[in-house]
Specification:
The complex is a heterodimer of chains A (about 350) and B (about 290). By secondary structure, chain A is mainly α. Chain A is built from 15 helices and 2 strands. Chain A has a two-stranded antiparallel ribbon. Chain B is built from 11 helices and 2 strands. Chain B has helices at about 1-30, 35-55, 60-85, 90-110, 135-155, 160-170, 170-175, 180-205, 215-230, 235-255, 255-275; strands spanning about 125-130, 130-135. Chain B has a two-stranded antiparallel ribbon. The relative contact order of chain B is 0.19. Residues about 285-290 of chain B have low confidence and may be disordered. Classes of the chains: A mainly alpha (about 350), B mainly alpha (about 290). At the A-B interface, helix 6, helix 12 and helix 14 of A face helix 3, helix 4, helix 9 and helix 11 of B.
Amino acid sequence: MSLPAAYFTKAFKLLRGEVFVLPSRTAVLLIGILLLIFPAFSQEPFILRVLILAAIFAIFAASWDLLSGFTGQINFGHALFFGVAAYTAALLNLNLGLAPWATIPIGAIAAVLAGLVVGIPCLRLRGTYLAFATLAFPLILLGVVYAIPSVSGGELGLQSIDPLSKSRVISYYIIIPSMIVLGFIMWKISDSKIGLLFHAIREDEVTARASGINTTRYKLLAFCLSGLFAGIAGGLYAHFLTQAGPSTLQLLLSFQVIIWAVFGGIATIYGPIAGVLILYPLTEYVLIRYLSVLSQAKMLIFAFIVLLVLLFMPQGLTTWLRDKTEKICPRCKLQNVAWRRKCRVCTAELD
Amino acid sequence: MAENIIVYGLVSSGVYALLAVGFSLIFGVARIVNLAHTAFYMLAAYLIYSLASAAGLNLYLSIIISIIIVTIAGTLSYKFLIARVRQHEATTLIVTIAIAVIIQEALLKGFGGQPRGIPKLISGSMEIFGVTVLNQQLLTFGVVVFLLLATWFFLMKTKSGVAIRAIAQDREVANLMGINVPRMEMLTMAISVGLAAIAGALVAPLLLVTPGMWTHPLVMILAVVVLGGLGSLQGSLIGAIILGFAENMVVFLAPSGSFLKTSVALTIMLIVILIKPEGLFGIVFEEERG
């Protein structure tokens, strides 16, 4: 058998063994493919713009989940990472003329440093204290941004930085695959040993430490990883909109990311992504275009939808769906479809 | 300069203290972080505006009606929305944010974004030690002191107050001692929202009323309760005084101070809790039983 054919068979086996066995994974695959081929159906700039922004915020919400959902270090100031990266990318682009492929990674590194700046002092804090302390960081920076308008552009922000690409379709094909790849990386991290340790820290930090886990190191790692992904999102946002303004640091953005993530279901990675991909196009496009809702009322409807969904599914949308459609094998802890009698791997009886 | 700092510092400390005590109370008793707390404060201000300026009711009457309506609205939202999801901590946060956003957007839709003014309850000003003080500022300060003393008296001396403190200390044992925990939590929520509504009524004539006016006090009271220590009422008071004065000192002394006032206040809060992670008067909560 030739080499490509062997790879093809292997990929097909992987798909059949790991993806098609669960309806949720099949759905993720389908949505990914749909997003990738979407411009073949419609290239309307406004729709593409909404989808691109949704993808950027999906990376951002998933990065919040990686930190707060998994390690339980509730971050109320996640906009800090987004804003730091957006402003860094914009400043580098405007002052040094660096291209987006350089400014976005540097912005992400700046966000990692911001993660350390927040993470190291906050190691001493827990629970509600930690949440309120993290809230302070982006607002402090916001005050500084307003106070030095000559550097930061003040209330207007930094305007006319280089776009990712002149064509919106190319921007789409930069950002949507980035979202899929980064989302997959985050999901892999959360599924690995590191993710398990993050879970352990959230469930019981003292026990985790007693089991020989250096919880300090892993909490800092969570802050840095989360900062990295949020920073990439921030850099993409600045270059896509060709501006970086104070709205990237505001309280509303910090709250919004928590709303998206909790709506989708925390500690899942795919939950926050689903939350953004559902809520953002819904409020920005569907309601306004098809239900002729005035754009002033979209936040009101957004809040009502979130409220109603959470009253009936307090753990979030995807967690609720997962609990309805999947069971965990009592022996090997793998996910199985709810209507199977026996585990798909170890054939243990599912109760 | 110094006299302005003292006058404005006292007024904003008083308002922050009133808001923070209410916020701290419901957190201490029910472990609910009510991010809609200052939205109720804003709602009260707008109700007074619509009753007094738009409907032409007597100012005193409209203030009393607004405080009652807001208290009822807060208690109902607790009973039907917050209490249903309270075992999920993150969901509770989002539900309270959603309530705040709904109030903000409803007000934005009803009244538009432009700032509104409310007539002062008592007009005129007074000279105290050569400093001109608006009578409304004096009234605000007097009412704040009275209400803080009244809250303290209620919590320390009355039977319901003792029950509320018992729940704050240990919910399960309080339940075993025959305290009606859900009802007491409702009462606490009513007091908490009521204090926020009164704060709104006091501040409305001094500020311009806008649909975005809830975020700044929210950030400040979060900083105040963390600085003072969560669940500690005297901590909230001291924290409010520190941050209220810090904010006004920055406004009057630093160049472009009105931009930096929040930054400085939050930096002070961060420095304090980095040195003393449980805040100035914080009680270290025992782990809740599972």
